[in-house]
Amino acid sequence: MEGVIAANLAAVRERIALAALAAERPPESVTLVAVSKTHSMASVREALMAGHRAFGENRVQEAQGKYPQLREEFPDLALHLIGPLQTNKVRDAVAEFDVIESVDRPRLAQALAREMEHSGRRPPCLIEVNTGEERQKAGVMPADADGFIGECRERLGLPIIGLMCVPPLEEEPAPHFALLREIARRNDLKILSMGMSADFEKAIRFGATHVRVGTAIFGARGSGG
Ligand SMILES: *Cc1c(COP(=O)(O)O)cnc(C)c1O
């Protein structure tokens, strides 16, 4: 019998394909990152058994608790860090994650560059832009984005491949997706990580190459997620 998570994954993949086709884009141009934060290893394993391989976690420590064993079973899984990264966790993050989506400040960028030099491991990175200019939220301000992208690429030599954003909860996300796309365009970055359970189809219309979907796959999270 097919489990709930496998069925949810199939439904989300179908919606992604339809949104991509409506935007006259090939469905393969959108990568689904299944956000497994707060969900159990058993839930992630169910998604893996259903053929899914790209996952997102927002905390280094939680990822370290779940993923090493899953990697032994499924060596080709890809783990994205989508949450704020403290500089004292940079070594662990570079060791554990395949993509770091939340590069958001110079001190973190410097620490990542040092650790990549030291370890020889160079996971591709995205720069998080605080498109809503929310005080409490992570991400570089839109006005500082071009400068920060330049610093990361040229001075620090980080493998920057794209941009990520989390629009303000209570706002229409379209202008935020459009702003992220524009910053990426003028910096010649091809990867756009935007769109979550509530708005991934709209994000695809605005050019998302990666959508980060948790609830629609794994169900509701408890508090603290
Ligand atoms: C939790 C989270 C998601 C997934 O959110 P859902 O609404 O459950 O799909 C996406 N991106 C980030 C950065 C998150 O923290």
Layout of helices and strands:
Blueprint: H1 4-22, E1 31-35, H2 41-49, E2 54-57, H3 60-73, E3 78-81, H4 90-96, E4 99-103, H5 106-119, E5 125-128, H6 142-155, E6 160-164, H7 174-186, E7 191-193, H8 200-205, E8 210-213, H9 215-218
Parallel strand pairs: 1-2, 1-8, 2-3, 3-4, 4-5, 5-6, 6-7
Helix pairs in contact: 4-5
Bound molecules: pyridoxal-5'-phosphate.
Pyridoxal-5'-phosphate (PLP) is lined by residues 35, 37, 58, 82-83, 166, 196-198, 212-216.
Describe the structure.
The protein has 225 residues and is an alpha/beta fold. Helices cover 44% and strands 15% of the residues. It is globular and about 50 Å long. The protein has an eight-stranded parallel β-sheet. It is built from nine helices and eight strands. Strand 6, helix 7 (174-186) and strand 7 form a beta-alpha-beta unit. The relative contact order is 0.15. It has helices spanning 4-22, 41-49, 60-73, 90-96, 106-119, 142-155, 174-186, 200-205, 215-218; strands at 31-35, 54-57, 78-81, 99-103, 125-128, 160-164, 191-193, 210-213. The chain has one domain: TIM Barrel (Alpha-Beta Barrel). The structure holds pyridoxal-5'-phosphate. The site of pyridoxal-5'-phosphate (PLP) has 14 residues, from strand 8 and helix 9.
Features of this protein?
single chain; about 220 residues; alpha/beta; TIM Barrel; 8-stranded parallel sheet; 9 helices; 8 strands; binds pyridoxal-5'-phosphate
In this entry the ligands are: pyridoxal-5'-phosphate
Annotated CATH homologous superfamily: Alanine racemase
Total count of domains: 1
CATH 2nd-level architecture:
Alpha-Beta Barrel
Total helices: the number is 9
CA-based shape: globular
> How many strand units?
8
Q: Note the gap between the termini.
A: 29 Å
SSE pattern, N- to C-terminal = HEHEHEHEHEHEHEHEH
CATH first level: Alpha Beta
**What is the radius of gyration?**
17 Å
Low-confidence stretches: none
- List the strand order in the largest sheet: 7-6-5-4-3-2-1-8
Nearest-integer average pLDDT? 97
Could you tell me the strand content as a percent range? 15-25%
Instruction: Estimate percent helicity.
Output: 40-55%
Characterize the biggest β-sheet: 8 strands, parallel
